[in-house]
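2024-03-11 09:14:02 DEBUG pipeline.ingest accepted 1 chain
2024-03-11 09:14:02 DEBUG pipeline.ingest length=54
2024-03-11 09:14:03 DEBUG pipeline.predict start
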Amino acid sequence: MVTDLPTAIQQAALFKQYRHKDTGRGKRDEELKMYWSHMHSELLKLCDRSDADK
Protein backbone atom coordinates (compact mmCIF):
# COMPACT_ATOMS: atom_id res chain seq x y z
CA MET A 1 0.00 0.00 0.00
CA VAL A 2 1.30 3.44 -0.94
CA THR A 3 0.34 6.01 1.66
CA ASP A 4 1.98 9.06 0.06
CA LEU A 5 1.96 8.69 -3.71
CA PRO A 6 3.63 12.00 -4.65
CA THR A 7 6.55 11.29 -2.29
CA ALA A 8 6.84 7.71 -3.55
CA ILE A 9 7.05 9.00 -7.14
CA GLN A 10 9.76 11.50 -6.20
CA GLN A 11 11.79 8.87 -4.34
CA ALA A 12 11.57 6.35 -7.17
CA ALA A 13 12.70 9.04 -9.63
CA LEU A 14 15.75 9.70 -7.45
CA PHE A 15 16.55 6.06 -6.77
CA LYS A 16 16.57 5.12 -10.46
CA GLN A 17 19.46 7.57 -10.95
CA TYR A 18 21.69 6.25 -8.14
CA ARG A 19 24.91 4.43 -9.02
CA HIS A 20 27.74 3.00 -6.94
CA LYS A 21 31.07 4.79 -7.11
CA ASP A 22 32.71 1.37 -7.42
CA THR A 23 32.47 0.52 -11.13
CA GLY A 24 32.67 -3.19 -10.28
CA ARG A 25 29.00 -3.10 -9.37
CA GLY A 26 27.80 -2.23 -12.85
CA LYS A 27 25.56 -5.29 -13.25
CA ARG A 28 23.84 -4.68 -9.91
CA ASP A 29 23.44 -1.00 -10.73
CA GLU A 30 21.71 -1.91 -13.99
CA GLU A 31 19.38 -4.31 -12.15
CA LEU A 32 18.50 -1.61 -9.63
CA LYS A 33 18.02 0.97 -12.39
CA MET A 34 15.58 -1.37 -14.13
CA TYR A 35 13.73 -2.06 -10.86
CA TRP A 36 13.36 1.62 -9.92
CA SER A 37 12.48 2.64 -13.48
CA HIS A 38 9.71 0.05 -13.49
CA MET A 39 8.55 1.10 -10.01
CA HIS A 40 8.49 4.76 -11.09
CA SER A 41 6.45 3.87 -14.17
CA GLU A 42 3.95 1.87 -12.12
CA LEU A 43 3.59 4.66 -9.57
CA LEU A 44 2.89 7.15 -12.35
CA LYS A 45 0.21 4.83 -13.75
CA LEU A 46 -1.32 4.58 -10.30
CA CYS A 47 -1.32 8.37 -10.04
CA ASP A 48 -3.02 8.67 -13.45
CA ARG A 49 -5.70 6.18 -12.42
CA SER A 50 -6.18 8.00 -9.13
CA ASP A 51 -6.61 11.31 -10.96
CA ALA A 52 -9.07 9.77 -13.43
CA ASP A 53 -11.25 8.55 -10.56
CA LYS A 54 -11.73 12.09 -9.24
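2024-03-11 09:14:41 DEBUG pipeline.report Helices lie at 5-15, 26-52.
2024-03-11 09:14:41 DEBUG pipeline.predict end
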